[in-house]
């Protein structure tokens, strides 16, 4: 039998009875958890993964290192299966992410986002009940884990709930959950504990300074829009009023003729001369795909025409040098400018769901 390598020996120290040794071993191994070298955590039987799951319960410093390693190795299907099929582990992650003094809450958010790639996790999270948070950690008035996560995401932006966490990566988790029919229903229907449609809470972040938050929110909006029946409520000014929050990231400092601008949503009129368009083309493409989905019904197509969405898309096509963006722009224009009386031109939208930011599983390299 071959002698274990120094790294394999270090992995063995994850089960040391002495905390200080477990902590040093776990912290050192974080640097070996990305790329091909992370095979040291994945021998037959996955014992190191099982040990790391236990260490997530350890001292906060050790716990954070263990969670970080699990983030980086959870792109492996066998590892993902092991994590996703352990309901007690999912419960543990929720207890940690809702702890205001836990330093690794953002690592837990990333791990949950990666675990949501497993087909069972979105449904489990939607059904999970955690009980109301303790009085000293008043996050949410709901017992549902999903509601608590949403309130963490909204109230915790800018590290206002946990000085070590901004919860931005929960947006990627939400995007995956919105990729499932029950998840779409959750985001597009008012929740019992506050009578608010969850997308209403998220759309205010479409121009947030965090790229991660903007990407995840854009993908959540897009995936939610596959629930066609919700479109009238989502675009209604008296309800979610979604459209301005999709359009604003698409708009720069260009000026529009008065006959166009006066018909646009009030929120996108009279923008400042230093208004900047979204800088990430993948996010622009996602918002444009959301518009494509909104063209599914004649009712909303007519509304988009009335609100002068076409000129905004026209300017995006002129300003953004990206083939994918321009292709989607052309599809929108073809739909909005077509003759509704010609049934041969009434083909449906061609849009694929996004599972998060289209960049795959998160790692901390």
Q: How would you sum up this structure in a few lines?
A:
This protein has helices at 6-12, 19-29, 47-55, 60-73, 77-84, 87-97, 105-115, 121-127, 145-155, 170-177, 181-188, 198-202, 211-224, 231-235, 243-247, 258-261, 281-294, 298-306, 309-319, 323-336.
Write the layout of secondary structure elements.
Blueprint: H1 6-12, H2 19-29, H3 47-55, H4 60-73, H5 77-84, H6 87-97, H7 105-115, H8 121-127, H9 145-155, H10 170-177, H11 181-188, H12 198-202, H13 211-224, H14 231-235, H15 243-247, H16 258-261, H17 281-294, H18 298-306, H19 309-319, H20 323-336
Helix pairs in contact: 2-4, 3-4, 4-7, 6-7, 7-10, 10-13, 13-17, 17-20, 19-20
Return residue spans where pLDDT drops below 50 for at least 5 consecutive residues: none
Strand content: under 5%
**SSE order in H/E notation?**
HHHHHHHHHHHHHHHHHHHH
What count of helical segments does DSSP give? 20
Describe the sheet with the most strands: none
Shape: elongated
Instruction: Write down the overall mean pLDDT.
Output: 92
Coarse structural class? mainly alpha
Portion of residues within helices: 40-55%
The strand count comes to 0
| Alpha-carbon Rg, integer | 23 Å
Note the gap between the termini: 32 Å
Structural domains: how many: 3
Family: Belongs to the HGH1 family.
Domain Protein HGH1 C-terminal: 290-342
InterPro entries: ARM-like, ARM-type_fold, Hgh1, Protein_HGH1_C, Protein_HGH1_N
Protein name: Protein HGH1 homolog
């Amino acid at each position: 039998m071959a002698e274990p390598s120094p790294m394999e020996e270090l992995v063995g120290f994850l089960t040391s009875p002495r905390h200080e040794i477990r902590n040093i071993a776990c912290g050192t191994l974080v640097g070996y958890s990305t790329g091909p070298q992370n095979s040291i955590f994945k021998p037959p039987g996955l014992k190191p993964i099982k040990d790391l799951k236990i260490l997530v319960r350890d001292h906060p410093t050790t716990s954070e290192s263990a969670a970080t390693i699990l983030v980086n190795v959870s792109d492996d299907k066998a590892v993902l299966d092991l994590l996703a099929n352990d309901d007690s582990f999912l419960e543990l992650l929720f207890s940690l992410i809702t702890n205001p003094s836990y330093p690794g809450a953002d690592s837990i958010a990333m791990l949950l986002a990666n675990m949501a790639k497993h087909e069972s996790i979105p449904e489990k999270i939607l059904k999970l009940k955690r009980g109301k948070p303790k009085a000293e950690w008043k996050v949410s008035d709901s017992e549902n884990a999903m509601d608590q996560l949403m309130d963490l995401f909204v109230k915790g932006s800018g590290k206002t709930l946990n000085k070590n966490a901004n919860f931005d990566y929960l947006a990627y988790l939400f995007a995956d959950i919105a990729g499932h029919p029950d998840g779409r229903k959750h985001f597009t229907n008012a929740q019992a504990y506050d009578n608010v449609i969850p997308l209403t809470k998220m759309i205010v972040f479409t121009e947030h300074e965090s790229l991660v938050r903007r990407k995840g929110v854009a993908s959540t909006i897009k995936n939610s829009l596959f629930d066609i029946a919700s479109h009238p409520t989502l675009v209604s000014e008296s309800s979610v009023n979604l459209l301005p929050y999709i359009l604003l990231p698409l708009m720069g400092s260009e000026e529009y003729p008065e006959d166009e601008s006066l018909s646009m949503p009030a929120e996108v009129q009279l923008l400042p001369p230093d208004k900047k368009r979204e800088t990430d083309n993948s996010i622009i493409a996602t918002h444009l795909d959301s518009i494509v989905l909104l063209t599914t019904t004649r009712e909303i197509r007519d509304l988009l025409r009335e609100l002068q969405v076409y000129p905004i898309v026209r300017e995006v096509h002129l300003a953004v040098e990206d083939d994918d963006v321009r292709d989607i722009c052309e599809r929108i224009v073809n739909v909005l400018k077509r003759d509704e009386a010609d049934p041969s031109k009434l083909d449906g939208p061609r849009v694929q769901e996004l599972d998060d930011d289209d960049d795959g599983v998160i790692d901390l390299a």
